[in-house]
Design brief:
disordered N terminus; single chain; globular; mainly alpha; 55% helix
């Protein structure tokens, strides 16, 4: 099963042309010397200017000020005002502040703070020759028309090599997955290599555990969950996919593993990532369901796809007119899928998985649902790590020996002088002390 799943995942990457990693807004136009980079860094892209529906400059400045204020008091913001963070992420993080916000949302800044110097050691260490050869072969495929990754000796490809090599050394039991290349490349477009590395660690181990390992057990589980959600939310589309024989593993892994970096226009990719780092894997399911509805939602669309190849082509080539940034993200967030619905369906499908599957079973409980859960887990871990546990001391005392009860001295009819004499021993010999005519206080009788 794992081998078959791996073949399904590799095939779309290998068959596609290198330009597919650009997104539909980054095609070449014009001869080489006259190509210019758009505002995202793609050579010959069509995003040199903001498109229709893009927020005006004044609104962008207001959002930037809100994000500066929230990130300046991040712990307070996440503790008391996470709903505001989620809404601002849905509106889109300003481009100038993604480098500041993404590590905060995914908790990479805490990982980097708790492990100083780790990335430098991994980057300087020699990598596994097997993984290094595979990574080197894939470098030119990651956004080849982006200005960072044009030259094999440029800082983009070299930084990508170091980040992916560092992860194979950080998690040698998982190694390298081909889908990690586009994810790390998008991170490097916005972050320095060390911060990009820790963000990649959080995505692979906290947001999507079990996705990039050798067995990809979580991908299989989420594929079954996606089909169950299709059956409930889009029953006609689900019936059509079953009739033509299009299973979820033929199109879903490329979407989820790459976080849609190779399937959507780059402005929408960034918006999806903003929401994904805030709300978790639920966003990927919402985006996938939205894409299926846009491709096969009408009767005319389904009639135009009578077979498997036509249906896959429709899923991979959605018209750009249906992928306008604001309209598309509004459809994503309005998809009727809550976190509770997703977790309930995951539990149902997990119970239905056959026990004979090779490899480790999926562990969906290890996946944290977004930035708030990650923040709370890191706060709890920090509190437990800083507080030194007090070792209880057990003191065993021997039993006390019983003492005889004290008897009250009989002082009735006796003088204090006599008592003192008996308690102190015999009186000191010497001449009698002369007294005055008055009677001594000690000779007073009671």
């Amino acid at each position: 099963m794992a081998q078959a799943l791996g073949e399904d995942l590799v095939q779309p990457f290998e068959l596609q042309d290198d330009s597919s990693s650009l997104g539909s807004d980054s095609e070449l136009s014009g001869p080489g010397p006259y190509r210019q980079a758009d505002r995202y860094g793609f050579i010959g892209g069509s995003s040199a200017e903001p498109g229709p529906g893009h927020p005006p400059a004044d609104l962008i400045r207001q959002r930037e000020m809100k994000w500066v204020e929230m990130t300046s008091h991040w712990e307070k913001t996440m503790s008391r005002r996470y709903k505001k963070v989620k809404m601002q992420c849905r509106k889109g993080i300003p481009s100038a502040l993604r480098a500041r916000c993404w590590p905060l949302l995914c908790g990479a800044h805490v990982c980097q703070k708790n492990s100083p110097g780790t990335y430098q050691e991994l980057a300087e260490a020699p990598g596994d020759p097997q993984w290094m050869e595979t990574i080197s072969r894939d470098l030119h495929r990651q956004f080849p028309l982006h200005e960072m990754f044009v030259s094999p000796q440029g800082h983009g490809q070299q930084g990508l090599l170091q980040v992916l090599k560092a992860y194979t050394l950080h998690r040698p039991e998982q190694g390298y997955c081909q889908a990690q290349g586009p994810v790390a490349a998008v991170l490097l477009m916005h972050l320095p290599p060390e911060e990009a590395f820790w963000c990649l660690v959080q995505i692979c181990e906290v947001y999507l555990p079990g996705y990039y390992g050798p067995h990809m057990e979580a991908v299989q589980l989420d594929a079954e969950v996606f089909m169950a959600l299709l059956r409930r939310l889009l029953p006609r589309v689900h019936k059509h996919l079953q009739q033509v024989g299009v299973g979820p593993l033929l199109y879903l892994p490329e979407w989820f593993l790459c976080l849609f970096a190779r399937s959507l226009p780059f402005p929408i990719v960034l918006r999806v990532w903003d929401a994904f780092l805030s709300e978790g894997v639920k966003v990927l399911f919402r985006v996938g369901l939205t894409l299926v509805r846009l491709a096969l939602g009408t009767t005319e669309q389904r009639l135009a796809c009578p077979g498997l190849l036509e249906t896959l082509g429709a899923l991979r080539a959605i018209p750009p007119t249906q992928l306008q940034e604001e309209v598309f993200m509004s459809q994503v967030h309005s998809m009727a899928l809550s976190e509770q619905d997703l977790q309930r369906e995951i539990r149902v499908q997990l119970a239905r998985l056959p026990e004979s599957t090779s490899g480790p079973p999926p562990r969906p409980q290890a996946r944290l649902p977004g930035a708030q859960a990650i923040f709370e887990a890191q706060q709890l871990a920090g509190a437990q790590g800083s507080a030194k546990p007090e070792v209880p001391r057990i003191v065993v005392q021997p039993p006390e020996e019983p003492r005889p009860p004290r008897r009250k001295p009989q002082t009735r009819g006796k003088t204090f002088h006599g008592l003192l004499t008996r308690s102190r021993g015999p009186p000191i010999e010497g001449p009698p002390r002369s007294h005055r005519g008055s009677t001594s206080f000690l000779d007073t009788r009671f």
